[in-house]
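Feature request, filed as a ticket because there's no other form

It would be nice if the structure record came with a short human-readable summary line next to the tokens. Right now we just get the raw output. Example of a typical job, pasted below so the devs can see what we mean:
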Amino acid sequence: MAIPQIVSKSFLSRRNELLFIVSVLAVLGTTGVLIGGIWDSASHALKIPDSFWTIQHVTVYSGVSLVAFSAAFGILISIKNRKIILGITMLLIGSLMQLGGGYVDYNFHEIYGIDGLVTSSHLTIESGLLLTSVGGFLMLAKFGYSKTKKLVPFSIVNIIFSATWIGFNLSLLVGATMLCIPIYDLFSSGCSVM
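Raw output as currently delivered:
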């Protein structure tokens, strides 16, 4: 038997295990994005100088890259389960939105230095984060609770935090001036809506 056939048979026989690893990486990557985002917000509260290449942003985009890698790897495995296909699609679209929004955010930081709390790039990143959170949860749902019981709480917290985060920023769009006054000091850039 030729080596490619041996590798193919071995690889395809472990498809379920590989998809489980993909879902674990997706959930952990999304958790990394949230931790980096919360860390970045805490840095604003401490009035630490802001630029794009801070350790907080590196943490965020390392998490995004992990999700993108897991989605790309998941696509390479031929699958027929609708939950998995939907989950992987959400992971891929969400991570691409975050990477695209990150590129725009990088350019914004390069041109203006610090950016406002509510920008189109941040809203794109946050929308992508919500998609990857839900996509990771859908992927875990395929494997049953007995196998995923330690990861499900992380996945649910990812969804709640990412939905809350985007909801908070969207509320700033509605009542920007009144809502921004109390948190102006928290973000050294102000609570500008750009």
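Something like this underneath would help us a lot:
Residues 3-183 form one domain.
DSSP finds eight helices and no strands in the chain.
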